[in-house]
Each structure stands twice: as C-alpha cells, then as structure tokens.
Design brief:
Layout (H helix, E strand, L loop, with lengths): L1 E2 L13 E5 L6 E6 L2 E6 L4 H15 L4 E2 L6 H11 L10 E2 L5 H13 L6 E2 H7 L6 H9 L12 E2 L12 H10 L9
Parallel strand pairs: 1-6, 2-5, 7-8
Antiparallel strand pairs: 2-3, 3-4
Helix pairs in contact: 3-5, 4-5
GO biological process, one term: methylation
Family: Belongs to the MGMT family.
Cofactor: Zn(2+)
Length: about 190
C-alpha cells in the first residue's frame, strides 16, 4: 500500500498527474507521482483547484499535468468502490513525500492499524506510536494529512465519543463514518 519516500526537495522535481473526481462527499482533487498517490483534497471546485495546483507544484518542484498516463487509475477505481459502499480500505500505492517525522509516523500507523469500519481515539493513536502524551500532536498530524479518505483521518475521534475536528468539515466526517457503518446514516 505504501511507498517509502523522503520529503520532496533537494532540487529534484517530482512529476505528478492530477484529476478531479466526483464522489459522494463532493469533488475530490487527486494527484499521483510515479511512487503513488500523493495528494487528496476535499471541495475541489474550480475556484480552489488553481490554489491546489500551485501549492502542489511548489511542494513537488514541478507543474502537475492533468491525468495523462494512468497514474491515477487505481486510486479512482479504489475510491469509486469505497464510495459505492464496498467494505475495505482504498488499497493503492502511496507516496509519503509530503509528510515527515512524527506526522508521517502517526499517519502510517493510522493507515496500517485502523481498519475500515473502526475508530480510534487521538490519545490511543498517540500511545500506539510511543508518545502517550501527544494527543494534541496527533490532532495536528490529522490536520496535515495529505491523503484524507485513503489515509483515514476521519476514523480518529475524541475519547468521549465526540467527532473531533476534520479538514473536510464535520458533515463530511459524519458521512464517511456513516458510509463505514460507524455512525447512523444522515437523515437528509
């Protein structure tokens, strides 16, 4: 599922491809390098897309091109299955180059250790990575997750059962957890 890669930089440009796909939670911006899926962003309307592309170009050192060679095909198929309600994680190669250090450690544990249909508390996730007092830092790692849905930060909740925060908005988090059977489906 994942490709080990260091943070981008060091003068080497990393070519990437991007697309926007429709999903049950709205348009998702997807980008991939030859190593794997590198970025997923919510609410990818036309107004936000240019900012997303500019930021990604700065992070990777190269201007991403719109879906050219099929790098995104597996991610699109996996996300389509996920949003169609097929149980299981989106199992695609991941390029971890946009995260490092503690955040990468937490996100990798989340990706590997919190399966579909389950949740984990911020404190428990901190304990799993050997930092039992770092629940707030885990929250910050969730907020910096470059691969939401695929690296399922929506599965991290407060110890009292509250949803906690979510970069895609709490309604999106509720929808994802309902899709996985963790919460009742919204009544709208």
């Amino acid at each position: 599922m994942d490709i080990e890669a260091g943070p981008t930089g060091g003068g080497r440009a990393v070519p990437a491809e991007w697309t926007v796909m429709e999903s049950a939670i709205g348009p998702l911006f997807l980008a991939a390098t030859e190593r794997g899926l590198v970025r997923v962003e919510f609410h990818a309307d036309a107004a936000r897309r240019e900012r997303m592309l500019d930021r990604l170009a700065g992070q990777l050192g190269a201007e991403p091109v719109e879906r050219a060679s099929g790098l995104l095909a597996g991610a699109i198929r996996g996300l389509d299955r996920y949003f169609a309600g097929e149980p299981g994680d989106v199992d695609v190669p991941l390029d971890w180059s946009l995260t490092a250090g503690f955040n990468r450690q937490v996100l990798r544990e989340l990706a590997e250790g919190v399966p579909y249909g389950t949740v984990v508390g911020y404190g428990e996730l901190a304990r799993r990575v050997g930092q039992p007092g770092a629940a707030q830092a885990v929250g910050a790692a969730m907020g910096s997750n470059p691969l939401p849905v695929v690296v399922p930060c929506h599965r991290v909740v407060e110890s009292d059962g509250g949803l906690g925060g979510f970069g895609g908005g709490l309604e999106t988090k509720r929808q994802l957890l309902a899709l996985e059977g963790v919460l009742p489906a919204p009544l709208f």
